[in-house]
Specification:
Length: 173
């Protein structure tokens, strides 16, 4: 029975074990945020939804002491709306939106070069399968590394539906 429980726990933590690089090109993974609720968002600097950076920063500041971390994952997959270098992305987010939440290195979130994290988030074994459709799609990951929710680009960080999901995840329900 213990082996079965370990395999189940391993499967739940798969998302946390997938290697990423942060915006400074340093190796990391979601394991660095184990025990926290993660709101993972594919971001872009030249998108109609870019103004959501303000809301993402606000939700991060409001809930970070309760265990939430917002993570921005730049991607240039939709309309070439994130063409900048890591330094340019970081400077833009800091200067324009005072972003303090973690940013990752630019990756692909769809297509043949899709990063393994997004392959796991959107693949057939995901709790919420299906390709990412546009910038600022949000994935809510629980403290245990399991995917709890998925929110389309049009769902703003201030949306009652998103806030309720974040609060429920923080409360452990």
């Amino acid at each position: 029975m213990l082996a079965g429980q370990l395999m189940a726990a391993d499967k739940m933590n798969t998302l946390q074990n997938i290697p990423l690089n942060d915006i400074n090109d340093q190796p990391t993974s979601l394991k660095a945020y184990a025990g926290k609720v993660v709101l993972l968002v594919n971001v872009a600097s030249k998108c109609g939804f870019t103004r959501q950076y303000s809301g993402l920063e606000a939700i991060y500041k409001k809930y970070k002491d309760k265990g939430l971390v917002v993570i921005g994952v730049p991607s240039n997959d939709f309309g070439g709306q994130e063409p900048g270098s890591a330094a340019e992305i970081k400077a833009f987010c800091t200067a324009k939106f005072d972003v303090t939440f973690p940013l990752m290195a630019k990756i692909h979130v769809k297509g043949a070069e899709k990063h393994p994290l997004y392959a796991a988030l959107t693949g057939p074994d995901s709790a919420f399968p299906g390709e990412v459709k546009w910038n600022f799609q949000k994935f809510l990951i629980g403290r245990d590394g399991r995917l709890l929710g998925r929110f389309e680009s049009q769902v703003t960080p201030e949306s009652p539906r998103l806030i309720q999901a974040v609060e429920a995840a923080l409360a452990g329900s």
